């Protein structure tokens, strides 16, 4: 087990190393660069050359890369040139990460709260109206571009009806203490109820838009999984023993049907991050996804490097945890590894 | 059975949770504004910014989003009359040049103090100039000290010529500035945001010069990030990066007329559509640079659209380096006759745009009304091409994607109009489009393009800020160093700028402008476009500035 884990971690390091080389080369192979983004139409040939030198962009790419790796190993990932000029890229990432986590977790929670009961009931009454509504809803969730959905929600609920704010994470002028960077949680911890409620109002729309992705997947997995489990012998046995519906549902059906759902939630990381890029842009949400979008526009290499490598690491780590937990749960996998 | 019904109800409640949550939250929906009555003191204003400020030390900045904030916190020796590009006294009440124009004596306003209580006096002014001149390392690069390099040149000990020589505090309220040569741009150039006077005490305490290159970039000081200290009508309160909000408060000790607002808040909303929606929903009270396509709908919705006087130029650049046909003046004149500027302005550009004849607006000194105006005349263009022996001259026409600029709100539309005109006049046009920061600027700057769309927004009222920037160094995007007149043009510009007598200097600029059109034609002026800003109807007292240097001190929000 330990050897398996070590091997997987080494694989992870190799993936990150290869990715960093490819990413570094790809960003610098794109035409243009941070100098154009910084100086715009104000750059003369002379000032541009001077700035390239100051940023070390005039050196051969392999030297740039080794400098980058050398500094990265000591925790210095360069400083932002476009998203928040002058701020260390890692600091920027760490500051914005809670915003993206808050949004993603809220989206997952909304998706779970809606998809699991719906998926269960759809499976219980297969072919019924709820089943059809759920299937159509999940198809829309999967196929509708999140950018469009975000705009639609904002237009209806914020602009037309004025129910919720159009963007940002908190109303300006609210005096809120920052603890974890999760604004809603901070408000609850510090008992600043106004700030907590205000943050929740800001969080709701973007989380709703972003939840469309996991909702669709979780609904379908739940439905399929419940259908499978309900055909199992032990459910029939439980029924014949005269157990109440509730006990059957909670102890036998849902418990067993939830395993694939848990795995699915873990594997939604990548989809959530790509969805967050668009959602955060539409809702002026100061998270990592927005930093990625602005970073591309302004050719902010250090920020793009940190965000993309961190996102890849998160994705690979989640996969690793899922695999390891399987290995713990299912001895056959461990045996296969040894073979 | 009963149990099932209860469970069913619970399930429905669970499904309805999301909807209920939205409704319950909407019950406490309220506007983010609280405000006083019209024209009276109080309230707060939230203005939508298009990007995050880089830092709050204006000397280390060159972007409008930073200056929008710092202009409210700091003041310069010289300011701008609201709504114009003309200078007015600000921290200096008057100034006098010596006979040779190299020594300037500034008389300072009395009874002024910085936000930290440090008195504003001649020593503080000299401390600022000395700080600027003594920059080293990262602080002496164009990435940080762009405006110093553009206006003053070199720094102490870097071997490059500098306009600045010394600063002497004669007494509390008199400063003598010694320049190395006369320039017509002085003291107007001091109206730029970068040359705001900052508190020497605060700069020392929070190590303002502690800016260091790190990795691919540079890290700002504690002063620049958290403790900006000026003499302006607003003081810095906080920058909540996690929420993208910069908060300023009224300076109760301000030496002039105090700000009407209690609080001024800039909210960063990078996406233009998101800014518009935030205004429509009442989340913000105004924002800058609404897209011209939105102007009508914003006005119809009752918002106050303020169109600035244009202080910019869009030109069709010509690089003669890679296309021999373009080295022939007749071909360049054919281009000028081929473009229908009037129609382009009326069909593609926003309301208030004007066709341009020279490389800067009429309000700037040295404008030559009598310079050649190449009327739209496709027949004449064809004739000139024939005379030059370059019928059907093949030209690449470059235009940028992924950008809008105040002078170029619609690059694709402008390109399309010009392409059509050139083809109608007998040119064979090859379109080349590249992303603005993804190759376009890189290649245009090293003279790789043939014909290209580019422009400039003026920093202050001076001909040198326009044509000096374009043609003052012959190694430029137009490749004027390859023309027989390139060096001569640069020399004439330098000579005009160092002429002390106003009338004589303006006559020289007028003459350069005539030659630029009649004899040189290194590029073709196309248009001046007005950038706009938009505010909610409750916002009163904001005066649009042609240099986008709006002041928020006189602004109030009515309830």
TrEMBL record, chain A:
<feature type="transmembrane region" description="Helical">
    <location>
        <begin position="257"/>
        <end position="283"/>
    </location>
</feature>
<dbReference type="InterPro" id="IPR035906">
    <property type="entry name" value="MetI-like_sf"/>
</dbReference>
<protein>
    <submittedName>
        <fullName>Peptide/nickel transport system permease protein</fullName>
    </submittedName>
</protein>
<dbReference type="Pfam" id="PF00528">
    <property type="entry name" value="BPD_transp_1"/>
</dbReference>
<dbReference type="Pfam" id="PF19300">
    <property type="entry name" value="BPD_transp_1_N"/>
</dbReference>
<feature type="transmembrane region" description="Helical">
    <location>
        <begin position="103"/>
        <end position="123"/>
    </location>
</feature>
<keyword id="KW-0812">Transmembrane</keyword>
<feature type="transmembrane region" description="Helical">
    <location>
        <begin position="203"/>
        <end position="221"/>
    </location>
</feature>
<keyword id="KW-0813">Transport</keyword>
<keyword id="KW-1003">Cell membrane</keyword>
<dbReference type="GO" id="GO:0055085">
    <property type="term" value="P:transmembrane transport"/>
</dbReference>
<keyword id="KW-0472">Membrane</keyword>
<feature type="domain" description="ABC transmembrane type-1">
    <location>
        <begin position="97"/>
        <end position="326"/>
    </location>
</feature>
<keyword id="KW-1133">Transmembrane helix</keyword>
<feature type="transmembrane region" description="Helical">
    <location>
        <begin position="303"/>
        <end position="329"/>
    </location>
</feature>
<dbReference type="InterPro" id="IPR045621">
    <property type="entry name" value="BPD_transp_1_N"/>
</dbReference>
<dbReference type="InterPro" id="IPR000515">
    <property type="entry name" value="MetI-like"/>
</dbReference>
<dbReference type="GO" id="GO:0005886">
    <property type="term" value="C:plasma membrane"/>
</dbReference>
<feature type="transmembrane region" description="Helical">
    <location>
        <begin position="135"/>
        <end position="157"/>
    </location>
</feature>
<comment type="similarity">
    <text>Belongs to the binding-protein-dependent transport system permease family.</text>
</comment>
């Amino acid at each position: 087990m330990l050897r398996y884990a070590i091997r997987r971690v080494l694989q992870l390091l190799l993936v990150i190393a290869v990715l960093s080389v490819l990413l570094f080369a790809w960003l610098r192979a794109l035409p243009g660069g941070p100098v154009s983004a910084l100086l715009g139409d104000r750059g003369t040939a002379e000032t541009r050359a001077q700035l390239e030198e100051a940023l070390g962009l005039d050196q051969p790419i392999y030297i740039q890369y080794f400098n980058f790796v050398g500094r990265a190993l000591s925790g210095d990932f360069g400083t932002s040139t476009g998203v928040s000029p002058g701020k260390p890229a890692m600091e920027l990432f760490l500051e914005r990460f809670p915003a993206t986590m808050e949004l993603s977790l809220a989206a997952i929670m909304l998706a779970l709260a809606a998809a699991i009961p719906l998926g269960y009931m759809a499976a219980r009454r297969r072919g019924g109206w709820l089943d059809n509504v759920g299937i159509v809803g999940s198809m829309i969730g999967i196929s509708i571009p999140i950018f469009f959905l975000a705009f639609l929600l904002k237009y209806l609920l914020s602009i037309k009806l004025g129910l919720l704010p159009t963007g940002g994470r908190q109303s300006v002028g609210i005096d809120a203490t920052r603890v974890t960077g999760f604004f809603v949680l901070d408000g609850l911890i510090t008992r600043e109820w106004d700030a907590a409620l205000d943050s929740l109002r800001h969080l709701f729309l973007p989380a709703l838009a972003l939840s469309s992705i996991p909702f669709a997947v979780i609904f379908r997995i739940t439905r399929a999984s419940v259908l499978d489990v309900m055909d199992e012998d032990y459910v029939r046995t439980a029924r014949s023993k005269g157990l109440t519906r509730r006990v059957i549902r909670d102890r036998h059906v849902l418990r067993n049907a939830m395993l694939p759902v848990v795995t699915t939630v873990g594997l939604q990381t990548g989809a959530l991050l790509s969805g967050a890029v668009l959602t955060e842009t539409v809702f002026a949400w100061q998270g990592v996804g927005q930093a990625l979008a602005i970073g591309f526009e302004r050719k902010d290499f250090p920020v793009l490097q940190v965000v993309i490598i961190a996102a890849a690491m998160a994705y690979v780590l989640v996969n690793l945890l899922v695999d390891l937990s399987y290995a713990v749960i299912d001895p056959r996998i461990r045996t296969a590894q040894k073979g | 059975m009963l149990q099932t019904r209860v469970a069913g109800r619970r399930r429905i409640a669970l499904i309805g949770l999301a909807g209920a949550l939205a409704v319950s939250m909407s019950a406490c929906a309220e506007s983010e504004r609280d405000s006083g009555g019209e024209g009276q003191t109080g309230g707060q204003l939230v203005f939508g910014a298009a990007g995050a400020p880089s830092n709050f030390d204006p000397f280390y900045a060159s972007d409008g989003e930073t200056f929008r904030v710092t202009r409210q916190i700091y003041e310069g020796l010289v300011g701008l009359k609201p709504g114009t590009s003309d200078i007015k006294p600000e921290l200096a009440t008057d100034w006098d040049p010596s006979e040779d124009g190299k020594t300037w004596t500034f008389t300072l306003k009395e009874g002024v103090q910085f936000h930290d209580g440090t008195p504003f006096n001649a020593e503080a002014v000299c401390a600022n100039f000395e700080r600027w001149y003594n920059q080293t390392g990262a602080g002496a690069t164009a990435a940080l000290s762009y405006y110093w390099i553009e206006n003053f040149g070199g720094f102490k000990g870097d071997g490059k010529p500098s306009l600045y020589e010394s600063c002497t505090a004669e007494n509390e309220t008199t400063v003598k500035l010694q320049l190395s040569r006369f320039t017509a741009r002085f003291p107007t150039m001091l109206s730029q945001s970068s040359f705001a006077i900052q508190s020497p005490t605060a700069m020392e305490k929070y190590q303002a010069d502690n800016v260091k290159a790190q990795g691919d970039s540079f890290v700002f000081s504690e002063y620049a990030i958290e403790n900006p200290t000026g003499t302006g009508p607003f003081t810095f309160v906080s920058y909540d990066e996690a929420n993208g909000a910069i908060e300023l408060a009224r300076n109760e000790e301000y030496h002039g007329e105090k700000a009407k607002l209690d609080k001024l808040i800039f909210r960063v909303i990078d996406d233009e559509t998101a800014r518009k929606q935030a205004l429509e929903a009442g989340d913000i009270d105004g924002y800058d640079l609404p897209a011209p396509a939105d102007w009508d709908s914003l006005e119809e919705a009752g918002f106050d659209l303020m169109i600035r006087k244009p202080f910019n130029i869009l030109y069709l650049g010509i690089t003669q380096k890679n296309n021999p046909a373009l080295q022939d003046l007749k071909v360049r004149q054919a281009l000028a006759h081929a473009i229908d500027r009037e129609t382009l302005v009326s069909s593609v550009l926003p309301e208030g745009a004007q066709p341009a004849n020279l490389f800067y607006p009429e309000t700037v000194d040295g404008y030559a009304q009598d310079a050649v105006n190449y009327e739209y005349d496709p027949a004449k263009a064809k004739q000139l091409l024939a005379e030059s022996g370059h019928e059907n001259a093949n030209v690449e026409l470059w235009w940028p994607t992924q950008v809008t600029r105040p002078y170029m709100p619609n690059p694709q539309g402008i390109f399309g109009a010009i392409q059509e005109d050139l083809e109608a006049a007998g040119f064979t046009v090859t379109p080349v489009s590249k992303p603005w920061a993804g190759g376009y600027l890189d290649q245009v700057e090293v003279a790789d393009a043939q014909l290209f769309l580019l422009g400039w927004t003026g920093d202050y009222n001076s001909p040198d800020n326009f044509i000096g920037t374009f043609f003052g160094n012959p190694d430029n995007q137009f490749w004027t160093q390859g023309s027989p007149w390139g060096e001569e043009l640069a020399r004439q510009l330098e000579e005009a700028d160092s002429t002390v007598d106003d009338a004589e200097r303006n006559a020289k600029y007028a003459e350069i402008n005539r030659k630029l059109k009649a004899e040189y034609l290194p590029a073709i002026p196309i248009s001046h476009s007005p950038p706009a800003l938009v505010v909610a109807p409750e916002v009163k007292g904001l005066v649009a500035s042609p240099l986008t240097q709006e002041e928020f001190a006189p602004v109030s929000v009515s309830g």
